[in-house]
Design a protein that fits this description.
Elements: E1 2-4, E2 19-20, H1 78-104, E3 124-125, E4 134-136, H2 158-163, E5 167-169, E6 177-180, E7 186-192, H3 199-219, E8 236-243, E9 252-254, H4 258-268, H5 271-287, H6 289-305, E10 320-326, E11 345-350, E12 361-363, E13 368-370, E14 377-380, E15 387-389, E16 399-404, H7 407-414, H8 420-425, H9 429-437, H10 442-448, H11 457-465
Length: 469
């Protein structure tokens, strides 16, 4: 892993919103319904209980109008004391087991035994190696454009990618496929999509919602200039969550205007959006279990330390989400250097566009590109890979959703929920920081160890989520 010094004052952070260290102020009243938008009817989901499916034992029964008085046990009797002791021990063991299971399955992560209605495709190996992964010296953030050489952001066409030696991966957009580095580690996953028939309605509703939110934001002049034109392209964006950037003393919720938050209310309270968020997070857990556990434990610790932080989705481990709301959301080549260099960012595409003609997802370091149809998802190391999309046709619309966690959050937690400056001010702080950062290359090797090989996935899932039941 190639390294430089700790990346502070990065101009690539300039497009990040300010954060505030207090809870989000609730809206004084619910926002008005969006004009011309009707939420799709919620379809039954496998595993969801309903009153009609209750077991007979759970239904009300007729009570005896004259029940016998309850038996009163003698507390002084030795047999009763022994039973109470055994009962207390059993309750304590059950509580500890529930707490362990709650931690293992926090944010809705699936157990290894969860059913999957798809067949994984054979892995695809690339010439890239994790030893070439670029990162700052402590491996908490990637390298920004100012610290990289030969970086010229641009929008690539399909033919230009082919001419530059990129391989096109032919993928159906449904069944998962893992991409490996030269040593066999999983560095990207084409997550696909569920085969459930209602998933098409879920994706259609999200696309319609994003289109309506953009139109409403434009009509009411809610979007600022940096919400419409930025380093990733020329399209409108909506985002929320909590983060931590350069100069921040601690993590905080992203700060927005009241009108902007009204748009966000429609977005993050939508059932279909939540389902997509859960699918992205569960895909992360399935193919990167050790890294997921690192995210989970870090985020749980941060939120226990700061309960005012706004966690967007209870079924997702991620702390922030961005929605590219178009009308033509295809990104220029970029690298999300404020994320962990070995962190995973899921991407889902929406909208009426021909995925064979445009909207391809490309990853420059892996020298590959692929079709990412509407409703399909992929997960990549966005803090280490230069990536983007090919243009779509002029009469088409495309939207996308990504989730992520800022690398500074992990640094904040590792330093004992304080900044590097605060840690260095403590007695022995410099020594403690050096121990956390590790020797040159040590944290980089540790970070690579959080990724799995395909043959290790079963054991890694079992270690994180427990054995099959």
């Amino acid at each position: 892993m190639q390294e430089v010094g700790e990346d502070d004052g990065d101009p690539e952070w300039d497009d990040l919103e300010e954060v505030c260290s207090r809870p989000q102020t609730p809206l004084s009243r619910p926002p008005s319904p969006l004009p011309g938008f009707t939420s799709a009817p919620e379809l039954p989901i496998s595993g969801r209980s309903s009153p009609l499916s209750e077991p007979p034992d759970s239904r009300p029964t007729t009570l005896d109008p004259h029940p016998p008085p309850p038996a009163v046990a003698d507390p002084a009797h030795p047999t009763n004391a022994k039973k109470r002791h055994q009962k207390a021990g059993k309750s304590a063991r059950r509580k500890a087991k529930r707490q362990a299971e709650a931690k293992a399955h926090a944010f809705g992560a699936p157990a290894e035994s969860a059913s999957h209605s798809f067949t994984e495709q054979p892995p695809r190996q690339t010439a890239f190696t994790l030893r070439k992964l670029e990162a700052c010296a402590n491996a908490f953030t990637g390298l920004s454009k100012r610290t990289r050489t030969g970086h010229f952001p641009r929008i690539w066409t399909k033919q230009q990618l082919l001419d530059a030696g990129h391989e096109q991966i032919h993928w159906d957009g449904i069944d998962p496929m893992v991409l490996l580095d030269a040593d066999g580690y999983i560095v990207a996953v084409l997550l696909g999509r569920p085969r459930r028939p209602e998933w098409k309605l879920v994706i259609l509703e999200v696309a319609q919602l994003l289109e309506q939110l953009r139109k409403e934001g434009v009509r009411r002049e809610i979007f600022r200039s940096k919400d419409k034109s930025h380093r990733r392209g020329n399209f409108h964006v909506l985002f929320d969550g909590y983060s931590m950037g350069t100069g921040q003393k601690k993590p905080g919720n992203l700060r927005h205007t009241k009108k902007y938050r009204q748009l966000l209310h429609h977005l993050f309270h939508n059932h279909s959006v939540r389902r997509v968020a859960g699918f992205q997070s569960s895909g992360f857990a399935r193919f990167f279990p050790k890294l997921y556990a690192y995210y989970r434990d870090t985020i749980l610790g941060i939120e226990a330390n700061q309960p005012e932080l706004n966690h967007l989705f209870s079924n997702s481990v991620y702390t922030a989400a961005t929605f590219n709301v178009g009308p033509q959301s295809f990104t220029a080549e970029h690298r999300d250097s404020h994320n962990l260099p070995h962190g995973v960012c899921p991407i889902t595409a929406f909208g009426p566009f021909d995925a064979q003609l445009g909207g391809h997802l490309y990853i420059r370091q892996l020298k590959v590109f692929l079709e990412l149809p509407s409703g399909s998802s992929a997960a990549i190391l966005s803090g280490a890979f230069d990536h983007g999309n090919t243009p779509i046709q002029k009469n088409e619309s495309r939207y996308s959703m990504t989730q992520y966690c800022a690398g500074a959050l992990f640094r904040w937690a590792a330093y004992g929920y304080r900044t590097a400056k605060s840690l260095l001010a403590l007695p022995g702080g410099a020594k403690k920081k050096a121990e956390i950062d590790g020797a040159p290359g040590a944290r980089a090797a540790w970070a690579a160890g959080l990724l799995s090989k395909p043959e290790e996935l079963v054991a890694d899932r079992r270690a994180v989520f427990g054995p099959k039941k």
